[in-house]
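[Q] Does anyone have a clean structure-token version of this?
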Amino acid sequence: MKKILLPATIGFFLLSCNPRNSDKVVNDSQQQTAEAIKENTTVEIIDSLYNFGSVAEGEKVEYSFRFKNSGKNPLVITKTTASCGCTVPEKPEKPIMPGETGFIKVVFDSNGKLGHNTKSITVASNAYPPFNDLILEGEVTEKK
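[A] Here you go.
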């Protein structure tokens, strides 16, 4: 009985976990994004370095790096990451159409970051050649 029950149970689980049968719902914007990623485009970085000068510890620095889609296809930013948890980048949610300018907003929290700081932001997209890292730098001084 055990010899039959074990293969039957395994077979049942294998058939019930077929990933090809899962239902997927894709809205129009997700479909457009997926299609845009298939085609590479080019990008012109307008701002790749921002020096915020000197700020007191605890202040937050906000900056929006600018770039322009210089290619013929929509530019899709799939992911932005920062070199440190104290820096949070926000990517555009919609594709940047050819000729349009887009922004990557970055917020740097200077709390506990005394001294000179250089933070890099990595951008993943369908641009070729790929984005260079964006750099945010400056000096954090003691709070008075």
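[Q] Thanks! Anything notable?
[A] The CA atoms of residues 48 and 134 lie 5 Å apart.
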